[in-house]
Amino acid sequence: AALRESVRFAGEFHMGTSKVHKAMAALVARLDELDIPYAILGALAMNAYGYLRATVDIDVLLTREGLERFKAESLGRGYLEKFPGSRGVRDTERGVNIDIVLTGEYPGDGREKPVSFPDPRVGAVAGRDFRLVPLPTLIELKLASGMTAPHRLKDLADVIELVRANALPASFGERLHPYVRERFAELWQAAQTSDAQ
Fold this sequence. Notes:
By secondary structure, this protein is an alpha+beta fold. Helix content is 45%, strand content 13%. The strands form two sheets. Strands 1-2-5-4-3 form a five-stranded mixed beta sheet. A two-stranded antiparallel ribbon has the order 6-7. The model has no long low-confidence stretch (mean pLDDT 92).
């Protein structure tokens, strides 16, 4: 039964009809209705950039003011805090968790570093279905996260997959913050190697 459910979910996710996609559409509509700047991060952003990876939650970037307004206008109206005082919320209709990161916070270990989460008012671009961080920013955040948090090594693997999915040249590293360029060059080189057939 668990295997059947996993296969069903994967199929729905890759068709864009999963409960995660429905929750994302509802969230984006709510944020737009409230005129709250946002940017989608995480696996859904990677999907938008050509690397298909399923996820069971939504990662969204807000300003602190945007979070406060969203909670004031939305809690009890289809959204609940994961626990009292939690930053994250849950879409109660679809049972999907929404993880919220804030402008100015630091990826990975959370400690101060040259790369931080941008302000979605100026650091987001329009995608097909939602606003998201630009590809260079997404890669910078993933690199900074994987470089400073040993439990976030998947973020470094995601960079390899984004390089492959977008056929990024080595020179793409010049668009990134100097803090992450050396690691990008290493991962770019790793991305050029395919598994033996």
